[in-house]
Amino acid sequence: MRRHGKLEYGGLAAPQRTCVGCRVRTAKSELLRLVRVEDQVVPDLRGRLPGRGASLHPSTSCLELAERRRAFPRAFRVPGPLDVSRVRAHLEGDHEMSCRTPS
Ligand SMILES: [Zn+2]
């Protein structure tokens, strides 16, 4: 009888994360890491920001799905709504906006 642990033997599989929008599990490298800064969700482009992260396919349709199902407050464990305008700007290619520091 095959032991469950055998399936994880070697640990060579790429780390996977679930997209908070479409809920599909994908290699971590395919997903955009998002972090919360106060009441904003911001793209963690270098993967270095501290704190709890959420993963999203870099597509506006997944962002919209995540917003519609209120996935961000759940992912970041906050009660209120979060501003995703910087994530949207990033996905729409407006890098000037997405890199702006919240004031
Ligand atoms: Zn997705």
Automatic annotation (TrEMBL):
Top-level taxonomic group: Bacteria
Matching Pfam families: YlxR
Coiled-coil parts of chain: none
InterPro entries: YlxR, YlxR-like_sf, YlxR_dom
Record-annotated YlxR domain positions: 17-81
The protein, known as: YlxR family protein
Organism for this UniProt entry: Nonomuraea mesophila
